[in-house]
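Dear colleague,

Following up on yesterday's call, I've attached the two folding results inline so they're easy to grep. Please treat them as preliminary; we haven't cross-checked anything against experimental data yet. The first protein's sequence and structure tokens come first.
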Amino acid sequence: MLAAVVGAVAYVALIDPDHPGHYPTCPFLAITGCYCPGCGSLRMVHALAHGHVAEAFGRNALAFVTLPFLAYLWVQWAIAARRGRPMQATLLRPWAITVFSVVSMLFWVLRNLPVGHALAP
């Protein structure tokens, strides 16, 4: 799993998402003209891979803030797999998933309103 993530990040680091023709367009953006919660994530990864932390945050703030939680979940999964036990992560409890879902929906709506224009990629 780690090799797949490192390979994907390396690819996005080498092939700039701002240059057209290398990555598919977001279907939601293409159909509606509105940004989805994931829009800007490839550009965020590209910016992070080049050490541009502020730019990465500006590309997709929600995805940027989510990265430490994903890293935590990966470490928990790796430890559980190594010990041969099921994963016991607090972040996967129903309340945490509900909170993340609500935050994602609010982010989705807000970034498409004029007042939330700074959240657009």
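Below is the second protein, in the same order (sequence, then structure):
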Amino acid sequence: MSENTTEVLVGGAVLAAAVGFVLYMGQATGFVSQGAGYPLTASFRSLEGVTVGTDVRLAGVKVGTVTGVALNPATYRADTTLSVLSGVEIPDDSAVVVSQEGLLGGNFVEIMPGGSPFFYESGDEILDTQGSVSLISLLLKFVSGGAGASQ
């Protein structure tokens, strides 16, 4: 009997740890919402390194997540939906930029606030956007420019 009770207790502990891990991963990847928010849309020329669940930051603080990414076949731009936490008001002259955490870090969407006294409302489109800059293309331009200058 005591062996059966021990097995049940150990099995329950393993199952509880697995459920806790799944919930943690859901929150870390953005699949589980961490609070109510409102959607904003933006269109980028290049959205390299940004996927659903990517952080949206304002002044380095996470204020939302990317909830949708789709290619617009008419403009060939990446139409993006951002969910911003309720209570975080974004001035309507703000810019949205795809930024990198560093040379080896991942990308995130950064909101550069403007100075307008008016704020975006649910469903508004942010027009001032700047897509990601490819580090590889920059290095190739530098290397090819450096080789041409020495000739």
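For the second protein, one point worth flagging: The CA atoms of residues 91 and 117 lie 7 Å apart.

Best wishes,
A.L.
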